[in-house]
Amino acid sequence: MSGAEMVPVIYGLMMVDEFGNHLKMRDSTMVMKDFRQEKYSQVFAFNKTDYKTFTESYKYYLGRPGELKVIFDSVEAYSTRARIGVVNTESTPALKALEERKKKLKAQ
């Protein structure tokens, strides 16, 4: 996976973790492993990848810290744009994909 392809996947996985941690505080019976497995699968499917491809790419970038830093800087920028809505979603494919993801998750 390219660095650009990694950004929305990493962002999605981070959001799953944050959401799961929030839910876990409200429901102590929740099994995080099951929750993460289900939601991670959704993130991978939405981004048209799979666990194996993602982990191989992630391991590749772990061996290249400079490139990994660029990816995580991009994840931070992606998150900031998504949070404050500065960029028009019609003009940015990544944010448009995020909006579509939100709509899909609400529909489920």
A few lines on this structure:
The chain has one domain.
Compute the number of structural domains: 1
**Percent of sequence in beta strands:** under 5%
Q: What is the number of beta strands?
A: 0
Low-confidence stretches: none
Rounded to an integer, what's the Rg over CA atoms? 15 Å
Question: On the 0-100 scale, what is the average pLDDT?
Answer: 86
Query: Quick one: biggest sheet?
Result: none
What helical percentage do the residues reach?
Answer: over 70%
Number of helices: 5
Q: In whole angstroms, how far apart are the ends? A: 28 Å
The helix/strand order is HHHHH
Morphology: globular
Q: What structural class do you assign from the helix and strand content?
A: mainly alpha
Outline the structure in words.
The chain is an all-alpha fold. It has one domain (3-107). 80% of the residues lie in helices and 0% in strands. The protein has five helices and no strands. The protein has helices spanning 3-26, 32-46, 51-62, 65-84, 93-107. Helix 1 (3-26) packs antiparallel against helix 2 (32-46). The longest helix is centred in the N-terminal third of the chain and has 24 residues, at 3-26. The protein starts with a helix and ends with a helix. The mean pLDDT is 86. Residues 4-77 form the DUF4296 domain. Pfam families: DUF4296. This is DUF4296 domain-containing protein. InterPro entries: DUF4296 (IPR025381).
